[in-house]
Design brief:
By secondary structure, this protein is of the alpha/beta class. The chain is built from 6 helices and 12 strands. Strand 11 and strand 12 form a beta hairpin. The chain is elongated.
Length: about 230
């Protein structure tokens, strides 16, 4: 199944908490799944939501990987990013056992290279650096901010990764903003925007009532009844 660019554009107009709300209405089984369980650092919270297909990889930082030709590994990874599908988001897990996050794979160079290869952002439980020098408009969620890259080598790519309590498969449709990330099942993608609009219209009833200046539990009761009539 494919997701149209029209659907992706609609998803970019919705924040991630609203996406989570919409998904649990579409399928109540999604209420407790499909989102990160631990918080990220978001260096650019003002950027619009990121929507893209996951391109996954694993790194280690505190010691050399032992892979004889690390350059070939790196070029293979870049070819994987370039291949798409697009829009894409790099999802990278730090496999470092000794000192997780001690080295930053992501900085000025990697954000610039990935953006040039058609990638719109990164989600990682590892660290990042060079915040002011990162590629303009490149979205970042990270585990931490650190000053050195140490080794920061790729040990694998195009594999399932688990970070911040969430497992992401290569090709998963990912939605992210300053709050965190969520996986949107492709079968539900076309319904998320319409469901989000429904939720917004329902919430507006009680929000408008609460902001009028005179508000009571009776107003809440009436608002709930009115919200039930919105479909």
């Amino acid at each position: 199944m494919t997701v149209s660019l029209e659907t992706i554009d609609a998803l970019r107009k919705i924040d991630t908490p609203t996406v989570c709300n919409a998904l649990e209405l579409i399928d109540p089984a999604l209420r407790r799944t499909g989102f990160n369980r631990r918080p990220f650092v978001c260096p650019f919270p003002e950027l619009p939501p990121l929507v893209g297909f996951a391109r996954t990889a694993e790194i280690t930082c505190s010691a050399p990987t032992g892979i004889a030709d690390q350059r070939a590994m790196r070029i293979g990874y870049y070819a994987y990013i370039e291949k798409g599908p697009r829009p894409s988001v790099a999802v990278i897990v730090d496999r470092d056992v000794a000192e997780p996050g001690v080295g930053a794979f992501w900085g000025e160079v990697q954000t610039t290279v990935h953006k040039a290869l058609g990638c719109d952002g990164v989600i990682t439980d590892g660290s990042v650096r060079d915040i002011p020098m990162m590629a303009s408009g490149f979205f970042v969620l990270a585990g931490s901010i650190m000053p050195s890259h140490v080794h920061a080598d790729i040990v694998g790519f195009d594999v399932p990764v688990t970070l911040m309590g969430l497992t992401i498969q290569p090709g998963d449709l990912v939605h992210a903003d300053r709050h965190g990330m969520a996986i949107i099942p492709e079968a539900a993608a076309t319904d998320v925007a319409a469901t989000a609009d429904l939720l917004t219209r329902r919430e507006r009833v009680i929000l408008d009532a609460a902001r009028r200046g005179s508000f009571s539990t009776e107003d809440i009761r009436k608002a709930f009844a009115e919200m039930d009539e919105i479909h």
